[in-house]
């Protein structure tokens, strides 16, 4: 149908499918959703306006889409053991905006992880609304261990008396001690927001400890390790439910994307199955195998390794910048991103590091032995641009055996 109606866009869709199938996808924040999630996304639920919440809409005809949102909310609560869930945020950034809108006023102080140490743009970067509208104090990782410096977090909290402390990161390979963050937040009377966009999929099945018992509000994206459609969501206590709901709609958003909410419900349903818990554990095993393999090949995993789905790799031992390594890997059919490492001497557009993650390759069925092999491919691509055709051949062979979206699905 699309091919007949709009061949130009059909070609884009097919070319992207081909790119996803024929390359090695190591971007830590991406995944391959199931065909069931894609089916919900491509449904007529996209046609429906449904401002408001199930049973309390500002449009007629919402009785069908109400069922999708009620299922998404109920499944999210069950999956994460949360008292309340809001599944309407269009993205992770929108979820954070809503959390701030619910609990802060412009000019309030927040304490969050610095962007160059692994924090997210929406955690107070000057180029983002969060940095423009709030006073931001930032904590980082220690130079020696490259782990979050909890003493520094406490000192900064006592000095700045933030109204909110944010934990959660976009490029931090280790577990976050949510209990310690809770203690510090309580000591200074701050809200604790856990933005676990990257790791919620691992928390779902218990591969890593959950932030839900500790944080007042948990924000996340549904499209990373969790393997759902592109979007955001919030979890909170029953006490904060009304505040959070009002902050999403009508304060920061209008009509919810009902096709995406239905797809979120599908993904939460998939994540409730025992196989997903196994998936989470395998993502972590695979990330460890990849980090170990890269270390053996002469690169340095920041903090010495990983407890999660991602590794941050210091390339300085090889004398190659992040930007150059990203380009060389792309030439060899490996998609990953350059990333600043803590205390990076290079500017953010260049960087000394790479970020690699295993949600995609694990969905595809690769195991730790394959990831050790993948590490040798990445190393070969980074070390020698001339060897790109040979690496590309090895990549094609590996992903050919573990094909994503086989034609019959
Ligand atoms: N929070 C964290 C920790 C993230 O890593 C990301 C995205 O990478 C976001 C928020 C924002 O998500 P989105 O890109 O959906 O706005």
TrEMBL record:
Naming one, the record's GO cellular component terms include: cytosol
Grouped into one coarse class, the protein's main location is cytoplasm
Q: Please list the residues that carry the modification N6-(pyridoxal phosphate)lysine.
A: 224
The protein's matches in Gene3D superfamilies, at most eight in alphabetical order, are given as: Aspartate Aminotransferase, domain 1 (3.90.1150.10), Type I PLP-dependent aspartate aminotransferase-like (Major domain) (3.40.640.10)
On the tree of life, the source organism's domain of life is Bacteria
Q: Where is this site: Plays an important role in substrate specificity?
A: 223
Compartmental location: Cytoplasm
The cofactor named in the record is: pyridoxal 5'-phosphate
Q: Which InterPro entries match?
A: PyrdxlP-dep_Trfase, PyrdxlP-dep_Trfase_major, PyrdxlP-dep_Trfase_small, Ser_HO-MeTrfase, Ser_HO-MeTrfase-like, SHMT-like_dom
- Coiled-coil parts of chain: none
Regarding protein family, the annotation reads: Belongs to the SHMT family.
Its quaternary organisation is:
Homodimer.
Question: What is the protein name given in its UniProt record?
Answer: Serine hydroxymethyltransferase
